[in-house]
């Protein structure tokens, strides 16, 4: 079973891996310096996170009923606008879990959670045009491509178009 839970101080090492592994960082963010957080920075973000923040981190974990739940990735939201009732979300999985259906399950669960628990109207995602696996996954979950911002995403391979994808109630 797949669950999404609030991030905890015990997750520092796992998040450090997700944010600093070169391949995950490339697909998740284009691998620019701002997203390569230190353990100390991750710890501070977790300690200071409040339920009312405009930005929050969550851990995706799976359990089989026999062993302890184990973490497979994270989902986040940022730019929570309480008036427009909108957020931008992001997600990444540890590499060994890519392509096994976990991302689809997690995105559906996270989207349901956000629409219901935060009474949202709009959820936005964005990535660069070359991230076809992510774009395919988002569309499979009911997200619709809204537009393309030309050359608005910088990656370690150079500028790419930023694809804006959204879902609404
Ligand atoms: C993006 C990500 C969250 C998706 O999760 P996942 O568990 O790998 O995805 P799933 O297995 O649920 O689904 C992947 C889908 O993409 C398809 N796919 C894989 N590679 C593809 C490609 N190059 N082009 C198009 N579709 C592709 C798969 O066939 C599958 O679709 P299907 O079920 O219709 O066959 C995960 O791969 C990841 O963490 N990637 C690195 C970080 C990242 O890119 N984050 C998103 C940027 S914000």
TrEMBL record:
Cite a single Pfam family from the UniProt record: Acetyltransf_3
Keywords (A to Z) from UniProt: Transferase
Asked whether the UniProt record includes Transferase among its keywords, one would answer yes
Recorded hits in SUPFAM superfamilies, A to Z, give:
Acyl-CoA N-acyltransferases (Nat) (SSF55729)
Q: Name one GO molecular function term.
A: acyltransferase activity, transferring groups other than amino-acyl groups
Report the Gene3D superfamilies cross-referenced here: 3.40.630.30
Q: Where is the N-acetyltransferase domain?
A: 2-169
- By what name is this protein known? Protein N-acetyltransferase, RimJ/RimL family
User: Origin organism of this chain?
Assistant: Thermoflavimicrobium dichotomicum
